[in-house]
Write a structure and sequence with these properties.
- It is globular, with a radius of gyration of 19 Å.
- It contains 12 helices and no strands.
- The chain is mostly helical.
- Helix 2 packs across helix 7 and helix 4 packs parallel to helix 8.
Length: 261
């Protein structure tokens, strides 16, 4: 499987580029739409909740504290949400291609992840630019965003691939997951600080892997501090286990997927 990825690397890179070009070929704004959508979401939440939440945040003396907090959290969530959402219908949308053309199916996953990662890099660049314009200072801690992003990719791909394979055989998965992701979003401290959660419920937050990840995005980007690396390592180990399970399922179900489609 990994040998096929290497042998078809040029196909993967060209497909990612072509997908990017085709998506915006008739758009005046081009690739800017990939960052306008999440930033507009930031603007809406900031407009509604900034006065309510700002006083409860670390560094509340900065008038942009809530904006920094919000953008840092949405950066991590946007990548996680996009990978899972695209995984759900990855095989269904490419069913005709899989039936007519003989190529390693694993390349579809690589192309999708590469496209999502490219979108996230562009969003990160825009967010860092906004932070700089608003007077936010950065330190070398920001380099930790690289392993943290890779952890999000592996976690989301592991969950998404399992759900995408299951969705081929049971289409209800594709209908219910957007609802679950929406609930998951509001169960994760992204638009609100952890401090508003009652103390006796905070231990339950550790059951949510995105809680640790989003908290780490906040620490790195909004507060210039080192997150709890032990907790990230635990999430990374869980992510690798999920990715291994998903790849095992993919290899076993690959031929059945084509038959069902």
């Amino acid at each position: 499987m990994f040998r096929n990825i290497w042998q078809y690397r040029q196909f993967i890179f060209s497909s990612i580029r072509n997908e990017l070009v085709l998506r915006f070929t008739r758009s005046k704004m081009g690739g800017l739409w990939m960052i306008i959508h999440p930033l507009s979401q930031v603007a809406i939440y900031a407009l509604i909740f900034s006065n309510l939440m700002a006083g409860r945040l670390q560094g509340a003396g900065n008038k942009y504290a809530y904006t920094f907090y919000l953008m840092a959290g949405l950066l991590g969530w946007t990548l996680f949400n996009e990978i899972i959402s695209r995984c759900l219908n990855l095989f269904i949308e490419n069913g005709n291609l899989m039936k007519k053309v003989n190529f390693p199916r694993i390349t579809l996953i690589c192309i999708m992840i590469g496209s999502c990662l490219l979108n996230n890099i562009m969003l990160l660049t825009a967010i860092l630019g906004i932070f700089a314009l608003l007077g936010h200072n950065f330190s070398i801690v920001i380099l930790l965003i690289v392993p943290l992003t890779l952890t999000v990719v592996v976690l989301a791909a592991g969950i998404g691939l399992i759900l995408g394979i299951t969705n081929v055989f049971m289409r209800d998965i594709g209908q219910i997951m957007p609802i679950i992701l929406q609930i998951w979003f509001f169960l994760t401290p992204i638009v609100y600080p952890e401090s508003i959660i009652p103390a006796h419920y905070r231990q339950l937050m550790n059951l949510n892997p995105m809680y640790t990840i989003i908290a780490s995005y906040h620490q790195i980007l909004a507060y210039n501090s080192v997150p709890q690396l032990k907790n990230i390592a635990i999430i990374a180990a869980i992510s690798l286990a999920l990715a291994a399970i998903s790849l095992f399922m993919f290899r076993r179900a690959s031929s059945d997927i084509v038959d069902v489609l």
